[in-house]
Every structure is written in C-alpha cells, then in structure tokens.
Amino acid sequence: MNVDGTLGYRFLLYKCFEGGNMSNSISQDFKMLSLLRFALPSMIMMMFMSLYSIVDGVFISRYVGSDALSASNIIFPVITIVIAVGIMLATGGSAVVARKMGEGNFKEARKDFTMLTLIGFVFGIVALVLGNLWIEPIVKLLGATPRLLSDSISYLSVLLYFAPMYMLQMIFQTFLVTAGRPQLGLWATLVGGIANIILDYVFMVPMNLGVLGAALATGIGQAIPAIVGCIYFSFFREELYFVIPKFRKSVLIETCFNGSSEMVSNLATSVITFLFNIIMLKMKGEEGVAAITIALYGQFLFNSLYMGYSMGVAPVISFNYGKKNYKLLKNVIRICLGFITISSMLILILSLMTNRFVVEIFSPKGSKTYEIAVAGCFLFSFNYLFSGVNIFSSSMFTALSNGRISAIISFMRTFVFLILSILLLPLFMGEPGVWISVPVAEFLTIFIAVGFIVCNRKKYHY
Question: Is 256 within 8 Å of 239 (Cβ atoms)?
Fold first, then answer.
C-alpha cells in the first residue's frame, strides 16, 4: 500500500472510532447531568451485556422449553467465574492505571494496561481448555439432572470457546472509559447486542440449533466489542494504547487486591446461583429452577445498571484522587449517592408494576413456572431498594485504591449475608424464604456500606 493509501486507511479508521473529545475527559468539572452523561455509555453497555443472557433466556424458553431454560441457569456459575476474573482485572486495573494517568505517569499506565489485557486473554484460553476437558463432571457437580444434562453440556461447551473474548470484552469496556472513549465501547456493545438478538432468532428458529444456537449467538455478540477494542488500542495512539508490556508483580497484586471485591461479588453469584438451583430443584423441581432463573435475570438487568454507573464514574474518582482534586472528588461522590438513592426507588416501583408482564415473556400464563415466578418475583423485587448503594460503595472504595474496605462490603453482602439467608430462611419460611433472602441480605449490607462511607469522609476528603 502506498503512503496516500495508508494515510487514507488510518483516517477512515479514525473517523469510525471517533466519538471522544474534551467533553468526555475524566478531568472535567462534572455536574449532575454531565456525570450521568459520562457514565451513560457504561450503564448501557452493562445492561446490554446482561441482555445477552436475558435474550438467550427468552428464545430458549419460547422455542426450546423450560427445561432448556433451567439448563442454561445450571451452568451459569462457570461463566460467572470467568466474568469475575475479567471484572477484577478491569476494575482493579482501571483504578491503578487511571491513578497513574492522574499523576502524569502515562508510560507506566500504558505498560500496565497492556500487561493486564494479556493476562486476561491467557486466563480465557486456560478456562476454554480446562473447562471443555472436564465439562461433564462440572455440569453434574452443578446439579444437572438427567433431563438437563445434554442441554447443559451443549450450552456450556460453546460458551467456553468464547472465554477469551469474554475476558477482553470486560477489560476493554472499562478501559475505554479510562481512555476517554466511552462512546466507542457503547457502540461496540450495542452492535454486539443487536447481533446477539438477530443470531438468536436465526440459529434457534430457522436453523433449529436449540441451546447450542443460543450459546453461539451470545459468544459472537461478546466477540464483536472485544475485536473493536483490540483494533482501537492497537492503532490509535492517544492517551491509552497497547505498548510492549513489562510484567510487574506489584501491579498485578495491587490490581487483584483493588478488584477483589468485584471478583468476590461475582464468585459469590456462582455460589448463590448454585444454591438457588439446588434448593428450588428440591422444592419445585425443574420448573422451580426456571422460575428462579427469571428472577435472577431481572436482578442481573437492574444491578447491571448500577454496575455500569459505578464503572463509568470509577475512573473519574480514581483520577481526581490521584490528582488530589478533592473538591471535585467530593462533588462527584455526592452526585453519585443522590442519583442512586432516587433511581433505586424508581426501579423498585417499576419492578413491582411490571412483574406479571415480565414473567409472561419467559413463561406462558397459567403454567407452573409462571405461577411460581409471579409469586416469588414480588418478594424478590424489594432488593432493588438497597442494592444500588451497596454496589456503588464497593466500587467507590476500589476506585480510591482501598481494596480492603471494598472487599469487606462485597464479602459481607454475598458470602455472609446472602448465603446465610439462602440457607437459613427457607428452613423457617419455606419457599418464601428463598425469594426473600436477597432483599434481606441487601438490607443488612447497606448498614455496613453507609457506615464505611461516613467513617472515611475525612480520610478521602469527600
């Protein structure tokens, strides 16, 4: 290719990926609307990521059956583990990299970013290989009954082949915000989500591939933003891009420590999903697992909004903390807490109003799964009143490089309060105890989260 052709090619790529400017800078003086606008791409991205699984669930339940829906939920803990490591590297690494950018140390920030991306990709390959080698014992261990075994293996096997893409997608989603390019990540995720929906229909209806088709559609949807991120960070030399990495053990340890709370939350999701499945199988059979799957889809969607918001504002918090701009740091945190408090109330009202309609999307009215889910989702919805503050508080302390407090909040919320609630409440309340366990755990956690926020105001100048 000649010089003019090369320049034309690079210009075309630049225009395709253009979308960030000074108004997207993490150093700007944020107000309520500008901060929401800055975080909005991350919020939409996270919600679209949750829609990957939800759309699969809708097509699976409608075109394959409730047993196949139960099978997709049985294997969910494995995928959650992969996502947990990706989120740990993304959130913990973003706090380290954004802080160094705030300090003006861009050279080290780029090397650390490249190193963490490479580590994530390698972990995805390891998960692909080991997961498929022992896939049947894993699925049986997760509680798959003979009715669910075949669909569970098919669904998990295909998803594992896309594990490296899952890792890259999670890492790029956060670091595009750190690089001041949230719109690029948003558009890539939107394209991936739309592709997922279209391919779900193509693979499952005309091609009749069943759960295998659903897994293929999800994997391709994840691969699109991963490829876009690879292109951007490889070809565009702006604030953050790929360089020759230098392995620094201290950076990896700090990243893992900072992101440990987010990893703990997702690992706990694996354990919690497993416990829900086992308990509901015992109480209500395969239909009970399908019903709890519908409730978990709703939680996944609404919590993803707060996760996206928290991930979107985290680089802003890290940058201003590194720059010692405490006035703006204080303003940003107060805006975040106000937004989350108001939106939590609105989401609870929305969930209660649309309960029956949402359940009917997955299961026809009058079916056993429908009746179980409608009654249970009403109780389950009250967790949305408290979860937003808990998610943000953990993310905020990660952004402030205080992985210890962040991990305590996440650990208490999940491995302590939620697991204990799931195990104990059904013993005293029966089936309602299963559905009320998440609201109870979120309610107990909010006292710890708010306590840490109040007690650390002077230390972090907010």
Answer: no
Residue 398: closest CA among 301, 290, 269, 256? 256
Q: Is 200 exposed, middle or buried (0-12, 13-18, 19+ CB in 10 A)?
A: buried
Q: Exposed, middle or buried, 249 (CB in 10 Å: 0-12/13-18/19+)?
A: exposed
Q: How many residues does the chain have?
A: 462
- Rounded Cα distance between 58 and 294, Å, is 9
pTM for the structure as a whole: 0.70
Residue 99 host element (H or E): helix 93-102
**Nearest residue to 168 (alpha-carbon basis) of 127, 112, 120:** 120
Euclidean distance between CA atoms 459 and 329, whole angstroms: 12
Across all residues in the chain, what is the average pLDDT?
86
Please measure the distance between the N-terminal and C-terminal CA atoms of the chain and give it in whole angstroms: 54
Interacting residues of 70 by C-beta distance below 8 A, sequence separation 6+ = 148, 277, 286, 289, 290, 293
| pLDDT confidence band for 12 (50 / 70 / 90) | very low
Question: CA 422, 310, 393: angle at the middle one, nearest 5?
Answer: 60
For 364-370, the CB contacts below 8 A with 24+ separation are 367/66, 367/287, 368/284, 368/287, 369/66, 369/287, 369/290, 369/291, 369/294
Q: What integer is the mean pLDDT of 396-417?
A: 88
The structure tokens 């498929």 sit at 132
DSSP letters along 112-162, please?
HHHHHHHHHHHHHHHHHHHHHHTHHHHHHHTT--HHHHHHHHHHHHHHHHT
Contacts of residue 177, Cβ cutoff 8 Å, sequence gap at least 6? 26, 41, 42, 94, 185, 311, 312, 314, 315
Q: Which residues, 6+ apart, have CB-to-CB distance to 426 below 8 Å?
A: 279, 283, 433, 434, 437
Tokens of 48: 């679209």
